[in-house]
Design brief:
The chain is α/β, with parallel strands linked by helices and 607 residues long. The chain has 20 helices and 21 strands. The strands form 6 sheets. Strands 2, 3, 4, 5, 6, 18 and 19 form a 7-stranded mixed β-sheet that branches. A 5-stranded parallel β-sheet has the order 8-17-9-10-13, covered by helices on one side. It is globular. The chain starts with 15 loop residues before the first helix and ends with a strand. The model has no long low-confidence stretch (mean pLDDT 93).
Length: 607
């Protein structure tokens, strides 16, 4: 079935100038001077340290002392894809290290009720053709995703090499042995010739630094450490029957809350939903996978689908191209493509961007209209309306979130005027000057996505050549060759949103970075090279080009309300998401492919 444009309010019915002013006013009242400092990590006196695993007991083991070819720091999608490509290149003397108890990354930790991926699973789950696997539906449940992640590690032979429930405390380059020395909280001493840092972007939960949080006498937990012993139910069976006599609050209204709130609303005696900035919440058709469609797919279908998704979500559909994804992520470009085809004339890039901005307002107006259509109380509906540009926050979808606010036992507490919770007390929380008594506080407050590296990685000592700390080296933001390697950190690669091509499918993006670094490692091992490091000249040239051609997103980011996309409204957002290559994803991947084809790693000092 061909995906059709959505019905949006006509452009001439929208007062765009008034909306621009509204967007600016809504952003201004939410910006806080303390920025990323408004979030913290628990000390253990308030909540258990987030490194602790509530899902699986930690098995005792003896410390390991060994030499290996490659250490992969992380066992989420970045780490899994790095190990897959290392294995494919013939590098098998490897280990993954992770604080979790198994593979999966965020899909290991996140087990809250209703958890699903909010991206098209046929794009998000990598290696579907290689694995002979097909997701059960368009938006996979968390259990399916984590089970699939584990199956990749098992199929390609690196599952039993991983060290789980293990925190890396120190990473140091040892010039005398030309290896990385890795120390852990389990007493390990690992000497690795190469290291791939795949620490993830959704790995470190953050906790609002609310005054008085240590005084609260009720139950508290983070949504990424869900406590089914308290709520009742189990992972995959969210019958939260132990909440029947409980008053519960959940703070945060991002992707987690959108999925968890309907379940909490169904079972809690009363539920307070504490919101600073509302999300966009579109409808969520989630049909099971059509077996006839699956049988009809030709080899190469997943790469073609991912390319289509990327063009629809981040670039532009090709003339006559159908939207294969057909959801909130691709709506603006889908509608715009239909509009341009109907007009039948070519436009300049400036004209295209102007039309795209107008379509952004039209789509957001449609999404705000869903609040009025689905929420009975007008004041609640108005408070749930998102007033910002489409990609200022992660686009979400749910058929059950808005209707939850029609229940008598659900109250929305909007804290935009006070920029968050004012305080917690022994009995509950204070918002807008009023105390609310509760039994349980759930923090759906997200992760350290764009904050400083030392907050995200949790590695106390991370030093390269001559004792240079990565936290100092990248204090003002990353400097790299190809967004993957960096001077003074030889034999090391990085996976993440770092100065390179950005694909809308995070697993494809991380996978291509892993493939590139795996090729470098394999070539060095085959050729008997001991040190591979970008030259200063090559790195400087790449960084210079990157900034010269980088798309200027500063105006958009400056308009967005504070959140993890812009590190809580930071003026100089050095770790902003989506730092794309100015010539696009395909050009970036072609550049890296050509670089590998040359064979002698130009720009690298190899010894």
């Amino acid at each position: 079935m061909t995906c059709q444009p959505t019905k949006v309010p006509a452009a001439d019915t929208i007062d765009i100038d008034a909306l621009r002013a509204k967007y600016a006013a809504e952003k201004a009242k939410r910006v806080r001077k303390d920025g990323q400092a408004q979030y913290t990590r628990p000390t253990g006196d308030i909540l258990p340290d987030f490194a602790a695993d509530p899902h699986m007991p930690q098995a005792a083991r003896a410390p390991i002392s060994e030499e290996i070819d490659a250490l992969v720091l992380g066992a989420g999608w970045g780490g899994i894809m790095a190990s897959y490509y290392l294995t494919k290149e013939g590098v098998s003397n490897i280990r993954n290290i992770d604080t979790a108890g198994d593979f999966g990354g965020v899909w290991y930790w996140n087990r809250y009720p209703g958890i699903q991926c909010d991206n098209d699973a046929y794009c998000y789950l990598p290696l579907l053709e290689q694995m002979g696997f097909m997701p059960s539906k368009k938006f996979s449940d968390g259990q399916e995703i984590q089970g699939y992640a584990k199956s990749i590690a098992a199929r390609f032979g690196f599952a039993d090499k991983a060290l789980f429930h293990t925190q890396v405390n120190s990473l140091k380059w040892d010039a005398s042995s030309q290896r990385w020395r890795i120390g852990t909280n389990r007493g390990d001493d690992i000497r690795a010739r190469f290291v791939i840092v795949a620490a993830g972007v959704l790995n470190m939960p953050k906790l609002p630094a609310v005054p008085g949080i240590d005084k609260f006498r009720g139950k508290m937990f983070h949504s990424a450490r869900w406590d089914y012993a308290y709520t009742g139910g189990a992972y995959g069976a969210p019958v939260l029957d132990k909440l029947a006599d409980k008053v519960v609050a959940i703070t945060g209204t991002g992707a987690t809350a959108i999925q968890a709130v309907p379940h909490l609303a169904k079972y809690a005696r009363h539920l307070y939903v504490i919101q600073r900035t509302p999300s966009t919440v579109d409808e969520r058709p989630n049909p099971p996978t059509d077996p006839d469609w699956a049988k009809s797919l030709e080899p190469g279908w997943q790469q073609a689908r991912m390319a289509n998704f990327h063009r629809g979500a981040q670039e532009v559909f090709q003339p006559g191209e159908s939207d294969l994804i057909c959801d909130i992520w691709t709506e603006i470009n889908r509608n715009l493509s239909a509009q341009l085809a109907a007009e039948g004339k070519e436009v300049t890039m400036e004209e295209f961007m102007a039309k795209r901005e107008v379509m952004d307002f039209q789509v957001m107006e449609r999404l705000r209209g869903r609040c009025d259509a689905l929420v009975k109380d007008p004041a609640t509906a108005e408070a749930l309306k998102p007033y910002y540009n489409h990609m200022c926050k992660r686009p979400l979808s749910s058929d059950d979130y808005y209707p939850a606010f029609n229940r008598e036992n659900v109250t929305l507490i909007d804290v935009s005027d006070s920029q968050g919770l004012e305080a917690m007390t022994e009995l509950g929380f204070i918002a807008n000057g009023e105390e609310h008594a509760i039994d349980c506080m759930i923090f759906a407050s997200g992760f350290e996505v764009t904050s400083d590296l030392d907050r995200r990685w949790g590695i106390a000592t991370f030093k390269g050549r001559d004792g240079v700390s990565i936290y100092d080296h990248w204090r003002d933001g990353p400097v790299t060759l190809h967004g993957i390697t960096t001077r003074n950190f030889p034999n090391m690669g990085f996976i993440g949103y770092i100065q390179g091509g950005i694909n809308s499918s995070v697993t494809e993006h991380f996978g291509r970075q892993g493939a590139h670094m795996a090729w470098i490692i394999a070539q060095a091992l085959k050729q008997g090279k001991t040190v591979v490091e970008p030259s200063q000249e090559a790195q400087d040239a790449y960084v210079k080009t990157y900034f010269e051609i980088r798309p200027d997103l500063s105006a958009l980011q400056a308009r967005c309300p504070p959140g993890y996309f812009n590190n809580e409204g930071a003026a100089n957002n050095k770790w902003a998401l989506f730092p794309g290559w100015g010539y696009g994803w395909d050009n970036f991947e072609e550049m890296l492919s050509d670089w590998r084809t040359v064979g002698d790693m130009p720009g690298m000092e190899v010894s």
